[in-house]
Amino acid sequence: MMGRMGTEGAGFRLIAGRYRLEERIGRGGMGVVWRASDQVLGRQVAVKELLSDDTLPEDDARRRRDRTFREARAVCQLRHPHIIVVHDVVEQDERPYLIMELIDGGSLAERIAREGPVDAVEAARIGVALLSAVRTAHEAGVLHRDIKPANVLIESATDRVVLTDFGIAQVEGATTLTETGSFVGSPEYTAPERMSGLRTGPESDLWSLGALLCTALSGESPFRRDSLGGILHAVVAAEIRPPAEAEPLLPVVRGLLERDPDRRLGAADAEWMLRAYLETGRTPDAPGSAGTTGSHVGGLIHRIHGSRTPKAPTPYTPTQLDLPYGGPLPPVAPEPPPARSSPRGLLVAALLVAALAGAGVSAAALLLHRDGDGGGGTPGGTATTPATRTGTGGTFLSPTPTGTRPAPTPTASPGTTGSHTAPSGYRTARDPAGFSLAVPEDFTRRPQGPRVFYLSPGETFRLGIRVGAPQPGGPEGALNRSAAAGPSTNPGYHDGRVTRTTHHGHPAAFWEFTWDGFSAAEGPRHTYDLCWEENGLVYDVWVSAPVGKVREAREYFDVAVDTFSVTGV
């Protein structure tokens, strides 16, 4: 089972008085897999040993043990030629051991690493086997939740495809590890709805299969990036670009990598389409979509035992980028504004916001220790002192001393800002500094030197604006200098990123980062900042908020930059 790693001091231990460990043949994040001998039945088996972690609190250690037993219970329910057989689960010295059939062969990941990508025919064969296995699991109420090439075994003698490692499987009605606040899974193969913590269902496994097919065909997941933040952005928001090698199977790949789980290709349909490719050399469109004609291909659906079509997915269309992170940045305030986006666009926006907000998922939490008020995204963005607490960037100059007397709040009315209508819950603020924009109705104005702030009650949210002269290197150069000074102006500054973009056709740059806040009581904050050059001036708009409130912060930011209009002094 899995690739051989050589004998490493197993000591020929005897487990539960029956299973003698002989050779370590694999290792994963949760444990080690051994080749072992069943002394009672005289057969070779694979034994998965859950490794202990002395640094874990007792409750966490118990949850890890529970996870192994859950894996056993989940998989023992399943009987399918392409699902690993679990013989037994035992415990010794408070450590669980999972006794499984021994597959003489390596994983799909090892095969790809050793021999390179597979062709479309082999990918389709693997896909059919896995889809059939997944359908059986789903019908039994079991979700795998970690489908990836490393968890697919290829038996050497028969080329049998075997889905293994149900270590994070979820059984309907059972409490999951994710519910306790710990994300489990492989981000490059994790569906956007799971990544965001919004939803987990059979459709999530199908997304993983789509990513796996791309990896098998090209050698790399389409969501691979250099950082966890980049992976999250690629999964949740960036344009999905299947590899060129996926062309023969493109209708299946695109259908499985549909971000909206309600529109995602079903397992039965995907299996039928891959079988059709193996028989005809052509992949038909999904049932119910244009192009699904022909009695020969249509008849194939009747040859799949137990096949059913739970839904008729609509044709795949790329999802519009919603939040720039870890990849090329689109215009921060695209037309039409988010408030007028399609329901599907709103779904993706919600997924990304929820993912960035953490939603109890540690993968997102790792991304989110970036936020800031100080430096809050303005050219030369320098934080104000803790006393002023308005500090998100937005300044080309040094911080303004505290104690600045607030100017009268400008007139504000519901109405419009330029050609944009203020959304419900917002008002149009016509600022004396020569601009107008929509701000939440309960935000109050507070000028601070060259900057103007609109603050929520309690200053939880800080919307800042700065108008100034052009800077060397344009908006991008200005924000890069601010980002370079981030550690000195924003306590705990980290995960900052400046990206070139445009704003309504004008040169612009976008800066996003996290920092620790001005005090422990305030806590970590996140900042979104857009700087652009227009009519000989540089405009900078930023919003800062607590890490746990990035959803609202992103909305305030998007509305502000989209409704911003130059009015003149």
Total DSSP E strands: 23
CATH superfamily of the largest domain: Transferase(Phosphotransferase) domain 1
Average pLDDT works out at: 73
CATH architecture of the largest domain: Orthogonal Bundle
Structure notes:
This protein is of the alpha+beta class. The chain has three domains: 14-101, Phosphorylase Kinase, domain 1 (2-Layer Sandwich), CATH 3.30.200; 108-333, Orthogonal Bundle (Transferase(Phosphotransferase), domain 1); 368-566, Mog1/PsbP, alpha/beta/alpha sandwich (Protein Transport Mog1p, Chain A). It is 27% helix and 22% strand. It has helices at 58-76, 108-115, 120-139, 192-195, 202-218, 228-236, 250-256, 267-280, 295-299, 343-357, 362-367, 474-484, 486-489, 550-563, and strands at residues 14-15, 19-27, 31-38, 43-50, 86-92, 95-101, 142-143, 152-154, 161-163, 170-171, 412-413, 416-417, 420-421, 426-431, 435-440, 444-448, 451-455, 462-468, 494-503, 506-515, 525-534, 537-546, 565-566. It has a seven-stranded antiparallel beta sheet, sandwiched between helices. A hairpin with a 3-residue loop joins strand 1 (14-15) and strand 2. Helix 3 (120-139) packs antiparallel against helix 5, helix 3 (120-139) packs antiparallel against helix 8 and helix 5 (202-218) crosses helix 7. The termini are far apart. The relative contact order is 0.08. Residues 1-11, 172-183, 290-351 and 353-419 have low confidence and may be disordered.
Secondary structure elements and pairings:
Layout: E1 14-15, E2 19-27, E3 31-38, E4 43-50, H1 58-76, E5 86-92, E6 95-101, H2 108-115, H3 120-139, E7 142-143, E8 152-154, E9 161-163, E10 170-171, H4 192-195, H5 202-218, H6 228-236, H7 250-256, H8 267-280, H9 295-299, H10 343-357, H11 362-367, E11 412-413, E12 416-417, E13 420-421, E14 426-431, E15 435-440, E16 444-448, E17 451-455, E18 462-468, H12 474-484, H13 486-489, E19 494-503, E20 506-515, E21 525-534, E22 537-546, H14 550-563, E23 565-566
Antiparallel strand pairs: 1-2, 2-3, 3-4, 4-6, 5-6, 7-10, 8-9, 11-14, 12-13, 14-15, 15-23, 16-17, 17-18, 18-22, 19-20, 20-21, 21-22
Helix pairs in contact: 3-5, 3-8, 5-7
